[in-house]
Amino acid sequence: MKTTCKTVKLLLMILIVSSKLALAINTHNPGSYNIKDYGAIGDGVNLDSKAINKAIDAVAMAGGGTVYIPAGNYLSGSIHLKSNISLFIDQGATIIAAPVSAANGYDEEEMSVNTSYQDSGHSHWHNSLIWGDNLHDVSILGQGTIWGKGLYKDYVKGKQTSNKAIALYLCRNVNISDVSILHGGWFAILATGVDNLTINNVKLDTNRDGMDIDCCRNVHVSNCSVNSPYDDGICLKSTFGLGFARATENVTITNCEVSGFDEGSFLDGTYKRTKNSEYGTSPTGRIKLGTESNGGFKNITISNCVFNYCRGLALETVDGGLLEDVTISNITMRDIVNAPIFLRLASRMRGPADVPVGELRRVIISNVVAYNVEPGQGVLISGIPGHPIKDIALKDIKIYYKGTGTAEQARREVPELEKGYPEPGSFGVLPAYGFFARHVEGLRIDNVALNLLNDDQRSAFIFDEVKAVELHFVKAQVSNGVAPVSLKGMADVTLFQSLNLPDGKLKN
Length: 508
Description:
mainly beta; single chain; 35-stranded mixed sheet; 45% strand; 35 strands
């Protein structure tokens, strides 16, 4: 009996010592900074951003670590990220943006190096829900949610309108993984001048742009789902927001999905489609390079992505930047509301004076299937007079168009719109249902099949002021009496086993 009592006492002593040791380790572990230990309540009513920022300050003072946000609803103003910090939002935890005001802890717009050549949203970062400026080694992680409930949904005159869910400026070594963002404000994620950026397994269901990657280098976006009915989904930009032109370069985007369902209906699984959207336009939700393009885009690869009920792929340089060395492969699209592929070089030139027009060159797009494409615009590749798009290859592509184009539409003259905003819909209904290429030099179309779901009185292809265009193994459905190809201006087009026409040069 005495032996048994001694054994029990020994076990109790070991348990007490182990508990104290575990508590001591946990207390001094930088990964154990729970925001509730700093006063956070998590009831969705009381403002918790002061407590969150206190925890961040404590971790920074300790040399780095993880700020832990447990399950709960945390009403918040601006959260200030710091270097060597991981903000871990656990499953069941939601950071809720309070209505934007100084009283709710939002920071004012900071003085910017430049506000002339881009909108307010690309000129300020500090007036956001979560922001970081000149930081390194920063992560936002976890299976929780960021809900930008109180962020403005659009421009409101006289108010702070450029707030974002997450805004990062001149940072490096940044990782955003696993979180979900609902209603992200001006942009759900804005990264400007950020190097070594990873965005992985993130779900965005938002009212404006999903993620804007601006003037960034060495970027990896993977396994993300972005629903953005009223603006772009995954968007690379190169603004003048840094005060100088800097390319967005060395970027991979892979295994991602973009869509334009009603806001909120992606995360809740209802996937609603409202015909008359809040903005009176068709859904956007695409992957795009541009519109802001002062610094250009270099060394970009996009692969294994899905477009669903949204606009098509867009590559644009209109502000003097170079868009070059881009490969895009393994893309599937369904219910596309305008051009499935849009390449645009123009001279909007929203930037400092005397900058020359940019160039768009060396692009390969392959292995694409697009089904149920609206009849307004097919593939649209357009430079401007004196500035052709160069060295483009499109191969292994199948596109199924809705058709219904009329003979009157087939006679339309398409405006140049050299200075205009680069959007496929701005050109109106195109006179070709499949491809319209103008001011292009060096275009190879290889193993491409165009199909119609309904009769269409337009040609499949129109080439206008083009040089060195080659069609190899190209098929296109056309209605009775409609020529498959129409040439305008100077056109140097060669066929090989294509369109049931003789091999060789086409003539006007």
